[in-house]
């Protein structure tokens, strides 16, 4: 029988999620936001919770995995404005939260209303 303990100091030091330079607002800042948050997660050793291969939760769930996943989820959520937060309120895991934001915002950009986007050759 093995007993797994949460990482040291978890009961004494409250976790303060790292903050990105700018919170996720919409598709216009998703690309830079996701790169920065991914780096914040990596620096805090939390990036496996969003990696599509390693992010699959071990079965049975270990206390350490759950603890790290909860920290990663908190980091993602505190770095979102209200619109993206409304998309992920009911996500069941860190990986599904990350993937929800990715599928909703990645590759989308809003065009400024005064910018003409050419669909055929443009001249002038």
From TrEMBL:
Region span, Disordered: 1-27
Polar residues composition-biased segments: 1-13
Protein name per UniProt: DUF4219 domain-containing protein
């Amino acid at each position: 029988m093995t007993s797994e303990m949460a990482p040291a100091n978890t009961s004494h030091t409250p976790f303060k999620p790292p903050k990105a330079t700018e919170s996720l607002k919409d598709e216009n800042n998703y690309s830079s936001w996701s790169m920065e948050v991914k780096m914040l997660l990596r620096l805090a050793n939390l990036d496996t919770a969003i990696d599509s291969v390693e992010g699959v939760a071990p079965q049975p769930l270990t206390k350490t995995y759950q603890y790290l996943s909860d920290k990663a989820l908190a980091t993602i959520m505190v770095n979102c404005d209200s619109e993206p937060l409304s998309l992920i309120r009911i996500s069941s895991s860190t990986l599904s939260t990350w993937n929800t934001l990715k599928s909703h915002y990645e590759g989308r950009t809003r065009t400024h209303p005064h910018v003409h986007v050419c669909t055929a050759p443009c001249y002038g």
